[in-house]
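User: what does the whole thing look like in 3D?
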Amino acid sequence: GAVVSQHPSWVICKSGTSVKIECRSLDFQATTMFWYRQFPKQSLMLMATSNEGSKATYEQGVEKDKFLINHASLTLSTLTVTSAHPEDSSFYICSAPRPGLQETQYFGPGTRLLVL
Amino acid sequence: AQSVTQPDIHITVSEGASLELRCNYSYGATPYLFWYVQSPGQGLQLLLKYFSGDTLVQGIKGFEAEFKRSQSSFNLRKPSVHWSDAAEYFCAVATSRGTYKYIFGTGTRLKVLA
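Assistant: Here's the predicted 3D structure for the full assembly of 230 residues, as structure tokens:
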């Protein structure tokens, strides 16, 4: 079964509004989670590393004020797309490494965001 | 800079035929390599991984991959494809040990003909 969940699975919002996406590890604790963005027919691009109890680390070119990440507990990370615009429409995927499994991550099912 | 290339965007095979999906990487040190499969509505599922040792790696669902350092390749193979294998396949490399940061290839979409 799924070990990493995301909510919602899809969301449509108006331009200028903010959208929050949740990522949960279901049966293990994750001090680190990752957020990826996937454009249609393209690869997954790492956006940021979410660290429990500390600030997220963003990849080059990712606006930290646009994509707010909060990792408030060992099983939950949230990504908030602030003041969303149509160009933010994409498929957002989170992942979490499972302790004890070397270099292996579990991925959530993704959240499709459409900004009108 | 590290990179992963999957030369084939789409591949179509008949059910029961053999399959090979290509993956080439660019990485200075010994890479940690992965193959994931993505089906609609589901998260990426790990098929197999290579860290060291035997260069032929066995995975789930009858898949295997061979690491060839001389060719900087990590191609995925399956002897006999099933209709349920139709999905998107991603090759990935971990940028460094312990960080879990991946670089993904652009993916190969597999279509299986009945």
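In plain terms: Chain B is about 0% helix and 50% strand. The interface with chain A takes residues 9, 32, 34, 36, 41-46, 49, 51, 90, 94, 97-98, 100-107 of chain B (CB under 8 Å).
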